[in-house]
Design brief:
With 222 residues, the protein is α/β, with parallel strands linked by helices. The chain has a single domain, classed as 3-Layer(aba) Sandwich (Rossmann fold). The protein has ten helices and five strands; from the N terminus they run E-H-E-H-H-H-H-E-H-E-H-H-E-H-H. Strands 2-3-1-4-5 form a five-stranded parallel sheet, with helices on both faces. 28% of the residues are buried.
Length: 222
């Protein structure tokens, strides 16, 4: 079982990932991904952290390659390799890094955590003890960084709900109930073993649609 957790900034995605992992007896991979990429590149974690879930502009890319001998393409290749390696081992919750756009495992559940901006600001202020202005600036900056990262390196929209199996809005759920939903969805996903090919379940849906259409037909007498 693999669960990927994509999250808007200040939605406690890391904590949710940890709680889901505990319930499903899985291992969380978050900062561990940075550590693995650093190991593969024989670099310090601090160096790789600068590139983590961030869009690297051309000037920074040139400087990074000059100072650290790490090109943008090399970093992304190693990041994807690390995530695929984790998925092959199985039994993991992978946080961010576009993992849901990389993996095609039949048993991979792809989750997106969202919340209204006002709620995210309040949660960040409560957790960090900063002002609302500081929280808003950090959230907008982090959301944009992750959005641009996914757009450039995966050619996808991180906010498109069709890229996920489950989208959780924390406005209508407590954190504990959000975890319950993800755990239940993961268990169902594991039981059904549905392929990650978009058209794979089309026959099942057509069959269901046909039955519903038949049941909805009026009964006529002659």
């Amino acid at each position: 079982m693999i669960v990927t957790i994509s999250r808007q900034a200040a939605t406690n995605g890391e904590l949710i990932a940890q709680l889901v992992a505990e319930r499903l007896s899985l291992k969380v991979f978050d900062k561990e991904i940075v550590e693995e990429v650093a190991r593969r590149l024989h670099k310090e974690c601090g160096t790789i952290k600068q590139m983590d879930e961030a869009l690297i502009n051309p000037v920074e890319s040139i400087l990074m390659e000059w100072r650290e001998s790490i090109s943008e393409q090399t970093y992304i290749r190693q990041l994807r390799g690390a995530i695929r390696s984790i998925s092959k081992q199985g039994n993991a919750v992978i946080v961010g890094r576009g993992a849901n756009f990389i993996l095609r495992n039949p048993d991979c559940l792809k989750v997106r955590i969202t919340a209204p901006l006002e709620l995210r600001v309040a949660m960040y202020v409560a957790g960090e003890g900063c002002t609302e202005k500081e929280a808003l600036e950090w959230i907008k900056k982090t959301d944009k960084r992750r959005h641009d990262f996914i757009r450039k390196y995966y050619e996808a929209d991180v906010d498109n709900p069709s890229n996920y199996d489950v989208v959780i809005n924390l406005a209508g759920l407590t954190l504990e109930k959000a975890v319950d939903v993800i755990v239940k969805a993961a268990e169902i996903r594991g039981e059904l073993n549905i392929p990650d090919e978009p058209k794979a379940t089309l026959p099942q849906y057509m069959e269901l649609l046909g039955r519903r259409h038949w049941k909805s037909k009026p009964i006529t007498t002659r």
